[in-house]
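Subject: two folds for Thursday's group meeting

Dear M.,

Sorry for the delay on this. The cluster queue was jammed most of the week, so I only got both jobs back this morning. I'm pasting them in the order they finished. Each block is the input sequence followed by the predicted structure tokens. Could you check whether the formatting survives your parser before we put anything on slides? The first protein is the one we discussed after the seminar.
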Amino acid sequence: MEQWKALKQFPEYAISSYGKLKRLKPSKNKGHFAQVGFISRGHLNPRWGYLSFSFRRPGGHGYCWKKVHRLVYETFVGPIPLGKEINHIDGNKINNRLDNLETVTRQENIKHSYRLGLSYTNGSRCHLSKLNERIVLKIKKWLFINRRTNRSIARELGLHYETIGQIKRNMTWKHVLFPPQSQWLLSLRSSHPSTS
């Protein structure tokens, strides 16, 4: 059952256990949001995927944004413990119902994200990647067909030679398949048997 509680920091609003915001006191501003009883689900931040509400700062100097899931948790449960963050149990960042929120460590949150398939850090889908699959395939061809050195490839592409070494040893970009690399790795393993 949906419950409502007034926000301590912004007493003119109440938030529900389903993540909705309602105006409790009239506003000087005009428009539908200024009316008592107006209910909002928040504004979606397209970059991060979280819903947020905009509040006028106390004293009337500018606005601040607050994430809905944090407001719900802090209003109904209490302060978020130090070293913890809010996790959406079902992985849906816009489902801000209280029963879908839990506190976890950063590491637990990341593991949960991978378990649900929400994190993509493979290859060019990683926002930090300087390479893409086409270039990595070219690098692998230069390494295993043309027999070029890590340093010569790195110099040509403006990369660190160890980046090329990690591709060669199949430590990174494993999903870019190149048959001669598999043969090279097998020959490397057979020439250096494990001592376990």
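Second protein, same layout:
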Amino acid sequence: MRAALLHTYGGTVELGEHPDPEPGPDETLVQVSAAPIVPLDLLCAGGTSYFGRQPLPYVPGVQGVGVVRTSPDLSAGERVWFATSAGMGPVDGSLAERCTVPHADLVPISADVSDAAVAALGTSAIAAWMSLTWRAGLQSGERVVVLGASGAVGQVALAVARHLDAASVVAVVSFLLSASPCGEPLRRLSQIAATSPATSSAATVTSPIACAVVGSNVSPVR
């Protein structure tokens, strides 16, 4: 099969041929359709991970989306999101045509969301959802402030807060003063604010910190 292979820590992955994975008794063989490159992939591939260095070459990719080919637990053709231990243990990851995954690391997908969107959300969406629901116990009508709101976790947190009917959602981001007008972070947040059913706005300020409010008025943070 075709796969992205890391031959040297700190080097560039190369596309090449790699043996097809053989699933174990409790593993599912997944035909991969989308796989993101996340910070953990870069950390492991750089050789400085706290998990230590794994045998080379290996296929990076700690999460992905695909369909089941063979499985002791799921039906062939079922759509799934999955996680792997690539870079953290002696296993291959999702940046390949096929991947073997333990059953505990599979999540069936029933929602009408594209494979690319699910792959991009991944554990970032889980982190945002768990932070606001399990950890914070967000209730309808409460106010939410999201720090680092231009990142993947932050952007999902904004959407989750709105979904859970927060009274106001404040997004705090940093940006380069040389950017015009305030760089990519505020452009993203302006788009997010524009999708809110309530009146929304984003602040443009001459400070390294700005905030946008989804569904409420806005004041700059200095």
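Two things I noticed about the second structure. Residues 116-214 form one domain. The mean pLDDT is 84.

Cheers,
T.
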